[in-house]
Specification:
single chain; 428 residues; alpha+beta; 4-stranded mixed β-sheet; 21 helices; 51% helix
Length: 428
């Protein structure tokens, strides 16, 4: 069989998740739903919601954090935006894919439309969707040009939704590939279009399953064909991923983001949180890192930058960490961004080329701290905080969920925070 056929067979097979994988799925589901609720009224969210309401009337699926319901594709659209727009959503780091985001938004809408489902059935579908979204990214050798979280996410999510809907998985995958869209241009510009690409992918995933179930034809070789994913979007070897199907569950490899900022900033921010430096004693901070880190978060500070740009601006994020000891999503307002105290610290931060030629590498990284007295020290950064190798402590996880609960509307369904699996599988 081809690698694509192996993937489709895996996606449609019966599975029982190992205990640790099931635990990881529940934990990550809770994290994803919490940050979705926290993003109600975030920058750009009102435009997304207003547009989704115009797609058509219906009350099939819930919007995370509010009582409103919309048709399933529209709910997936809004929820996808809410999950990603604060840059707080979980990510499979080696794949460079926010693997939970599109899958959770689309699958949740499909489950709601069905009237609920068995919790284990939902977790298996979630794990398979995340596995495929992550695995597609893991099998890539080329540097990212298309926005991989959306492009891989729509295919993983469509497969997950097809399992729940009883739709043909091969057709859902082919239709999702035909719907794949999103580039890194929005990231380069620090635009709200970046989370829109996640929203669009979630909506497309639901529609792909709907079309497949309705008997609409789809490309049969969307990944390895002459104009498939590995020819047009990226270069890689799908078999590198599919040879491990079922042996390694990729959802257990997904990292939680402690900070509401681009993931490429988190390794350094975690080390700065650990060091707890006195900003008045700091003359300069230099982060030596691979090209992907610089590409993603080496953004010049400007008092006029947008919130989306600021979440990807390492100098500004460093200033927030030194002053606040955390990254609070509420600190991305025009007044905060233009704060002269934060601006002065941001001016002391630079990212340096470490000579690494790997376009997908996140490590090694090191922080050089130069103090006002001229002394300097270098701290290696070996793992990103929130990764499987450096997980959040119970206190750190509680702090994140507590902040998300604080940001969410007061009338949000509290099962999101207290019983996320029950919330996800029981829409009543």
């Amino acid at each position: 069989m081809s690698a694509t056929a192996d993937l489709i067979a895996f996606a449609g097979a019966r599975h029982t998740l190992p205990g640790d994988v099931r635990d990881a799925a529940i934990r990550l589901l809770g994290d994803t739903l919490a940050i979705g609720a926290a993003a109600v009224d975030a920058p750009g969210e009102s435009a997304i919601l207003q547009t989704a309401r115009q797609f058509g009337a219906g009350e099939e699926a819930r919007l995370i954090g509010t009582a409103e319901r919309l048709p399933a594709p529209s709910a997936a659209f809004v929820n996808g935006y809410r999950i990603h727009c604060l840059e707080w959503d979980a990510v499979h780091e080696p794949a460079v894919v926010h693997a939970m985001s599109v899958v959770t938004a689309a699958l949740g809408a499909a489950i709601d439309r069905r009237g609920g489902c068995d919790p284990d059935e939902a977790l298996v579908a979630l794990a398979i969707g995340v596995d495929i979204a992550s695995g597609l990214g893991l099998s890539v050798d080329s540097a990212m040009t298309f926005f991989r979280p959306a492009v891989c996410g729509v295919m993983g999510a469509a497969v997950a939704v097809a399992r729940i809907d009883g739709a043909p998985i091969d057709d859902a995958l082919g239709l999702a590939y035909s719907s794949a869209a999103g580039t890194m241009q929005a990231h380069v510009e620090g635009s709200e279009t970046l989370p829109f690409q996640i929203a669009n992918a979630a909506r497309a995933a639901v529609s792909a399953s709907d079309l497949a179930k309705a008997g609409f034809s789809a490309p049969k070789n969307p990944l390895e064909g002459p104009f498939g994913y590995y020819r047009l979007f990226e270069e890689g070897d799908l078999a590198r991923y599919t040879s491990q199907l079922g042996k390694v569950w990729r959802i257990a490899e997904v990292s939680t983001k402690p900070f509401s900022s681009g993931r490429a900033s988190h390794a350094a921010l975690g080390k700065l949180e650990e060091l707890a430096l006195d900003p008045e004693q700091i003359n300069a901070i230099e982060l030596a890192c691979p090209p992907l880190i610089r590409r993603l978060v080496d953004r010049p500070y400007s008092p006029e930058m947008t919130p989306a740009w600021a979440r990807l601006c390492m100098p500004y994020l460093t200033a927030l960490m030194l002053i606040d000891g955390r990254i609070d999503p509420r600190r991305f307002t025009a007044n905060d961004i233009a704060d002269p105290v934060l601006a002065a610290i941001a001016a002391k931060v630079r990212l340096a080329d470490d000579g690494n030629q790997d376009g997908n590498a996140l490590f090694p990284q090191s922080l050089k701290i130069t103090r006002m007295d001229g002394t300097a020290e270098t701290h290696p950064v070996e793992h990103t905080l929130g990764s499987p190798d450096n997980p959040l402590s119970p206190a750190q996880n509680t702090a994140k969920l507590g902040l998300a609960r604080e940001l969410a509307p007061a009338d949000a369904d509290q099962r999101i925070f207290d019983e996320p699996l029950a919330y996800f599988t029981d829409p009543k």
